[in-house]
Amino acid sequence: MKKQFISLLILLITGTGLFAQNVKLSVADITALTTQDEGIFFYPKLTPDGQSVLFTGPHFQGLYVLNLSDKTITLLNRDEGAGYEYQISADGKSVFYRAATFKNHKKYYTLKEQNLSNRSSRILESEIREMTPPQIFKGRLTYLKNAEVVQRILTQNLQKKRVQNIGAVFVGDRNMLLINNGERKEMAPLGEGLYLWPHLSPDGQKIVFTFGGDATYVCDLDGNILSKIGYANAPVWSPDGKWIVYMVDHDNGDYFTDSEIFISSADGKQKIQVTDTPDIIEMYPSWGAKLNQLVFASNRGQIFMAILKTE
Questions:
Q1: How many CB atoms within 10 Å of residue 65?
Q2: Is 283's pLDDT higher than 90?
Q3: How many CB atoms lie within 10 A of CB 93?
Q4: What pTM value is reported for the model?
Q5: d(CA 240, CA 101)
Q6: What is the mean pLDDT of the chain?
C-alpha cells in the first residue's frame, strides 16, 4: 500500500496528465430502443459504426441485432450462453461468443465467430470444458483454454499466435489475470478478494476493476492504485479512456430495488448522473466506439440509448 500511495502522489505532483480532461459531458437525450412487446432483451452493445445494437435474451440465450435506422430486430442465433460477455470485432463485421452445451451433466463451451451481415458462423474451438469468454484488444482475440493462453490475430483465417503484447485481463481466483508481453501475470492490487469486471483501458495502460464489498478502482499494469471511483458496478471505459460508465444498484437480497447509470471521470473527481428514474431499473451500460452513445437495459428487458453532448 505504501508503494501505491507514493506512486499516486508522484503522479499528482508531477501533473503527468494521465487523467487530463479536455471534454465536458452532459446528457442530451435518452430513448427507448425496444418495447416489451418486441421481446425481453439484456446486455446491449453498440457496433463500432454506431448504427446497430446487439443484445441477448433471458439467461444469455441467443443474440439479436437492432438496426437503428429502420428499427428492425434480427435474430442472429439461439445458442445457449451466446449473450454472456460476447465481443464485436473492431471492423463491425463479426461477433465472437461461447455457446454452451451439456453432456453427461457436464458443461462444454464452443467458441464461435458469426458474420453480422449474412449470419453465417464458424467454429474456432469445439467442446472445451474450461474456457473464458473471449476478449478483443488491439486486433487480437484472447481467451484462456484449459488455463492455456490462446490469442488469435483478427484476420480472415484467425491464425493462432503466441502472445506478444497486452491482450486481456480476466477474473482469477481471488485476483486478476493480466495477459501481458507473453506472460500470464496475477494481480491483486488490494490483496486477495473478489475482483469483478476488470477491463483494460483503450490505451492498454490502466485497468478498471471492482473490488467486492468495497469500491471500484483504476490501477496501472503493476497494480498501483491510480484512482478510486467509489461505489460503481459493471464499470466500462469510454472510447477515449477518460471516462467510466457504471451502474449504482441496490437490492434487498432477493431482487434489485433500484439502479441508475452514472459516468465518472477516470480520476474519480467528476460524476455525471445519466438516468434518474425511480420507476425504471437501468443496468449494465456499454459504451460504443463513439463518445456520444451509451446503451443499457432495464431489469425488465428493455433496451435504451443515451445521447451525450460534449463541450
A1: 18
A2: yes
A3: 15
A4: 0.89
A5: 37
A6: 90
- The CATH architecture one would assign to domain 1-32+165-311 is 6 Propeller (2.120)
Question: Which residues are within 8 A (CB) of 8 and not within 5 positions of it... i.e. 6 or more apart?
Answer: 224, 225, 226, 227
Which amino acid would we find at residue 24? Answer: K
The pLDDT, as a whole number, for residue 228 is 98
Residue with cell 463518445: 291
Rounded CA gap, 189 and 210, in Å? 11
CA torsion 122-236-205-178 (nearest 10°) is -60
CB contact at 8 A, 142 and 167: yes
3-state SS string over the chain?
Answer: CHHHHHHHHHHHHHCCCCCCCCCCEEEEEEEECCCCCCCCCEEEEECCCCCEEEEECHHHCCEEEEECCCCCEEEEECCCCCCCCCEECCCCCEEEEEEEEEECCEEEEEEEEEECCCCCEEEEEEEECCECCCEEECCEEEEEECCEEEEEECCCCCCEECCCCCCEEEECCCCEEEEECCEEEEECCCCCCCEEEEEECCCCCEEEEEECCCEEEEEECCCCEEEEEECCEEEEECCCCCEEEEEEEEECCCCEEEEEEEEEECCCCCEEECCCCCCCCEEEEEECCCCCEEEEEECCCCEEEEEEEEC
- Tens-digit pLDDT profile for residues 69-82: 999 999 999 999 99
Q: What is the pLDDT of residue 10?
A: 36
Q: What is the pLDDT of residue 44?
A: 98
